[in-house]
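Supplementary Text 2. Reproducibility record for the structural model of the 184-residue chain.

All settings were left at their defaults, and a single model was retained for analysis rather than an ensemble. We include the record here because the model underlies the residue-level annotations in Supplementary Table 4.
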Amino acid sequence: MLDKSKNLKKGNNNQITINNQITNSKIRLIGVSGCQLGIYSSQKALKLAQEEGLDLVMISDRSDPPVCRIIDYGKYKFTQEKKAKEARKKQHNANLKEVKMRYKIEQHDYNVRINQALRFLEAGDKVKATITFKGREIQHSDLAVELLDKMAKDLNILADVQQAPSRDGKHIIMILSPKKNKSK
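Retained model, structure tokens:
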């Protein structure tokens, strides 16, 4: 049994209350095997935990009466940290990457932009395709929309159009997001 004198942090400002820190008069006790033992006084539950050489840990203080469990606190803390680490590992934040071009782009340059977009989409990021106009080029916005539609068609294996081509000042933008189920 571990002797804990202070409340230990659990996640974001949630306190783990253990052993002598549990001051509730009645608690619902869960045994080592995971089955409910019933409602006990906190002193009696602590005595049962000490007899088994384990700790009394408050699992939920929101219920009435609070739920406590007889477990090895060190092992419990380790498994909680391991679960949190796995959850962080599986979490992926999709960034928004931008591919810029002009509507009069040459074929080779267009292929380079397509390859950039493919790389971003395979990494799980969203792609913002931007076509910039200078001066009177804005009169040819229909050509820019055609180019973005061609780009969406070329990338349709890996991407869905999240936002159709739309005009934003002297730019036309389109946002592509990676497909959930990649079918190759």
